[in-house]
Amino acid sequence: MEFCPKCGGIMMPSRKGDSVSLKCSKCGYEKKASEDMLRGYTITRETDRSLRVKTTSRISESRGTSRSIEELEQEKEEYYEIFLDLVEKEEEPEQPEE
Question: Would residue 64 be called left, alpha or beta, if left means φ above 0 and alpha means ψ between -120 and 50 degrees?
Fold first, then answer.
């Protein structure tokens, strides 16, 4: 690991085209890097277990959460009733206050 000669920040590898250089994470100072310099660099990051997201490979096969056709139809009817009520309220002219 190398540190910046100007500010002491960590020099991180960065790629520009075909060349690789070491760039300071604080001030932006760059230095051309050789393959020997880059061998010791690995980037790792640990995440708190409480922040991890659990996933599965079978997202499309959700069992037990599917709704029946009757439930879907009922939900659709309720949606349309609410929609029509809102449209009627918007179409009603406002009564002027006296």
Answer: left
Q: What pTM does this model have?
A: 0.38
Strands of the 11-16 sheet, one edge to the other:
11-16, 19-24, 30-32
Q: Which two tokens stand for residue 32?
A: 């051309």
Asked if 55 contacts 37 with a C-beta cutoff of 8 angstroms, the reply is: no
- The 10 Å Cβ neighbour count of residue 49 is 6
Residue range 9-21, pLDDT digits in tens = 988 888 777 788 8
Mean pLDDT of all residues in 65-73 = 82
d(CA 2, CA 94): 72
